[in-house]
Write a structure and sequence with these properties.
Oligomer: homodimer
Number of strands of chain A: 12
Strand order of the largest sheet of chain A: 3-2-6-9-10-5-4
CATH superfamily of chain A: Electron Transport, Fmn-binding Protein, Chain A
Shape of chain A: globular
CATH architecture of chain A: Roll
Strand content of chain A: 35-45%
Structural class of chain A: alpha+beta
Number of domains of chain A: 1
Order of helices and strands of chain A: HEEEEEHEHHEEEEEE
Number of helices of chain A: 4
CATH class of chain A: Mainly Beta
CATH topology of chain A: Pnp Oxidase, Chain A
Helix content of chain A: 10-25%
Chain lengths: 169, 169
């Protein structure tokens, strides 16, 4: 089932990561607050499932420092970053303690109480309605209960292991 | 739980779609072949779940013309488009009959027999391992069984309802 155009390779971690690096994606800071405390992490593995009802998927590593709080709180906000927000992406994507992460931004809330990042180009405030383990990660089904978007700023994209500010329109 | 920075809006179809338009995403032609016949559709709702084992999520509308074939075949290939492939994205995203869609590209196969598009910048050839209905769509868990990527060409991104060729690196 193969031909001369493509050399099939065993699917190694390296080949999977190299191919995923070619898949450009928006960058998000995903936040949560509630009985489990305030927590947040950087994610590109976010996608829309359906608009009836408005639902996103967010994938979260069960070893992530934010994981216990997100699960305990049962809510999250997807803050889609603007072109100028690579710095806060790095802060929430690293080993920085939670309190220091949140010191890097200005926050408000919408409906659930999950932190809403000022300057992000879209905010999806969500109730987590289902959680399914797949390998190392949990797939979170997130129903959007409040929403906000800004039409002006460029988006922050991640492609080939580098940030890019992309102007739409 | 709201403040002056953000005016919460009811989550309408329009507000959800407007906010999702701000979320830049790679564009893929997802294909399938087997007992259900050859079929394909354009998708941006693709994301990586875990690399252990290498797994993607693909979201597919149950009303899509490709749906019955994809389900019957149990395999698919995610072809991540290059910057110059907006034309084939439109062909696979519209009402074009399947035979005409495939006439718009050159195809090979990897392991599963799902069509592999020449010129795409990454190919994820997958077995569908799980299928879950969420609203109008099915969430397909797809285990990657063969992979191919090309490091040279820019990627095709969709942001603010328009195509953009994005150079990485």
């Amino acid at each position: 089932m193969t031909d001369a155009l493509h050399t099939p390779a065993a699917v190694t971690l390296t080949s999977f990561r190299d191919a995923m690096a070619r898949l450009g994606a928006a960058v998000h800071v995903v936040t949560s607050d509630g009985p489990g405390g305030r927590a947040g992490f950087t994610a590109t593995a976010v996608c829309s499932v359906t608009d009836s009802p408005p639902t996103l998927i967010v994938c979260l590593n069960r070893n992530a420092s934010a994981y216990p709080a997100v699960v305990a709180n049962g809510v999250l906000c997807v803050n889609t970053l603007a072109g100028g927000q690579a710095g806060i992406s790095n802060t929430f994507g690293g080993k920085t303690p939670m309190a220091e992460r949140f010191a890097a931004g200005t926050w408000s809330t919408l409906e659930t109480g999950a932190p809403v990042l000022e300057g992000a180009i879209a905010h999806f405030d969500c109730q987590i309605t289902e959680r399914t383990a797949v390998g190392t990660h949990d797939v979170l089904l997130c129903q959007v209960v409040a929403i906000h978007s800004d039409t002006a700023a460029p988006g922050l994209l991640y492609l080939d292991r580098a940030y890019h500010a992309l102007h739409g329109g």
